[in-house]
Design a protein that fits this description.
Bound molecules: 6-O-phosphono-beta-D-glucopyranose
Structural class: alpha/beta
Shape: globular
Strand content: 15-25%
Number of domains: 1
Helix content: 40-55%
Strand order of the largest sheet: 2-3-4-5-6-8-13-14
CATH superfamily: Glycosidases
Number of helices: 15
Length: 465
């Protein structure tokens, strides 16, 4: 069977500034929470590798853009680093070196017919702002809006696709529940306030973007993790799965697309004494400023069952897990390296949910991918990693994307996570996701993997057999 995709389908990959650029003397970048956390607790990072030693994109972007061409990209998402562009959040002075870097990268992408998609916030709170509470502090919403406006004014003449956040639920989970992000607190009430401020910041940035009439589109990138009950006929399982979907998906999807928070979640938040500080004006801003375009990151499903294990509420307060258990489904297909389930149909279910329940808003797969540890063992005699597993993974997901398109989904493209192996927060370089290998021992030397060459054929044919 031939899987042919609509004309002008976006083929490419996604990355982020903090995971790729690196830190170089004299670049004028200030610390963000990752630079700070690494300085404080380097042992937390896999093999002790920190954000300074990323793939050196700050220096190598011209070479990288050629590699993107060789791997079939017609589009590419990265993010601007707030702490690079506005190192001093008091004076708000713009770092000209950052402007020159992003300008040159954008210009070269366009000259090579690769459309730049630009994200604003990818987990990288400037440390100065974190010191006053980060997303917990309402003032930071205004700092963010200033940053967003600055980006639109500087680069919006050429960048026509903007995203306010990447996976805004992750800083909530990572920073306020599960310890993967600084400030590494366990405090759900704080988490709810952070989520609220992120959603408000997004709406405010959208308002500014639209007021500037730059002729492009703005959206948000969400990691939508479809929640499946253990047993669809068991009411308690279904209820638990619905709550999980509300907490982790609809909490951002609904305000972004529909302009309001989901009622069942607002109720749950009230019942559990977790209400954030809000104002009626905020809610109007959220209602009036919804997205033009949705980015969907899809990696894995969540399998849920009703709570069976006893709940012991600690002095740190309640956690989402007090209301459900994760269902370890027998026989599920796993990516053993990352420990995530592979469930290809989840991408289809997500797209159909968007079609049926979210106005069939224009969307694209903004991340999908497979992290594998120890890929060196797949290197062939020519020095190329033969990552056939990744090719299979992409094909198996694309078949379901194709099916969703047949059924009317407005999905516009598919971006892999990621272009070249990059630094992934506490996991550092543990799991490799790229089309292009990066050798950290050889000054970040790049080598295209088999999947990269395959992706070029896919993009050129706009489909596969
Ligand atoms: C995505 C994030 O969710 O997952 C990326 O947007 C991240 O920033 C990627 O790098 C892979 O994560 P991990 O945890 O497997 O290294």
């Amino acid at each position: 069977m031939k899987y042919q995709f609509p004309e002008n389908f976006w083929w490419g990959s996604a990355a982020s500034g903090p995971q790729t650029e690196g830190v170089f003397e004299g670049d004028g970048k200030a610390q963000n929470i990752w630079d700070f956390w690494y300085e404080e607790k380097p042992e937390k990072f896999f093999n002790g590798v920190g954000p300074d030693k990323t793939s050196q994109v700050y220096k190598k972007y011209l070479e990288d853009i050629q590699l993107m061409k060789e791997t079939g990209h017609n589009s590419f998402r990265t993010s601007i680093q707030w702490s690079r562009l506005i190192p001093n959040t008091q004076t708000r002075e713009i770092n000209q070196k950052a402007v020159d870097f992003y300008n040159d990268m954008i210009d070269h992408l366009l000259a090579n017919k690769i459309e730049p998609f630009m994200n604003l916030y990818h987990f990288d709170m400037p440390m100065e702002l974190q010191n006053k509470g980060g997303w917990l502090n309402r003032e930071v919403v205004d700092d963010y809006v200033f940053y967003a406006k600055t980006c639109f004014e500087l680069f919006g003449d050429r960048v026509k696709k903007w995203f306010t956040h990447n996976e805004p639920i992750v800083p909530v989970e990572g920073g306020y529940l599960y310890g993967w992000h600084y400030p590494d607190e366990v405090n759900l009430k704080h988490g709810v306030q952070v989520a609220y401020h992120e959603a408000l910041a997004s709406a405010k940035a959208i308002e500014v973007y639209h007021s500037l009439n730059l002729g492009g589109e703005i959206g948000i990138v969400l990691n939508l993790t479809p929640s499946y009950p253990r047993d669809e006929k068991n009411e308690a399982d279904v209820k638990a799965a619905r709550l999980v979907d509300g907490l982790f998906n609809r909490s951002f999807l609904d305000p972004a697309v529909k302009g309001h928070f989901p009622e069942d979640i607002v109720e749950w938040v009230k019942e559990n004494d977790l209400m954030p500080v809000t104002t009626p004006e905020d809610l109007q801003i959220i209602a009036d400023n919804t997205i033009d375009l949705l980015g969907v990151n899809y990696y894995q499903p969540r399998r849920v069952k009703a709570k069976e294990t006893p709940v012991e509420i600690s002095e740190k307060g309640i956690l989402p897990e007090d209301f459900y258990d994760i269902y370890d489904m027998p026989g599920k297909k796993m990516n053993p390296y990352r420990g995530w389930e592979i469930y290809e149909k989840g991408i289809y279910d997500t797209l159909i949910n968007i079609k049926d329940n979210y106005e069939n808003i224009r969307c694209y797969i903004s991340e999908n991918g497979m992290g594998v540890e120890g890929e060196e063992r797949f290197v062939n005699e020519q020095g190329m990693i033969e990552d056939d597993y990744r090719i299979e993974f992409v094909k198996d997901h694309l078949k379901w994307v194709h099916q969703a398109i047949q059924e009317g989904s407005a999905v516009q493209g598919y971006h892999m996570w990621t272009c070249m192996d990059n630094w992934s927060w506490l996991n550092a370089y543990k799991n490799r996701y790229g089309f292009i290998a990066v050798d950290l021992d050889q000054d970040g030397q790049r080598t295209i993997k088999k999947s990269g060459y395959w992706f070029k054929e896919l993009a050129e044919a706009n489909g596969f057999d």
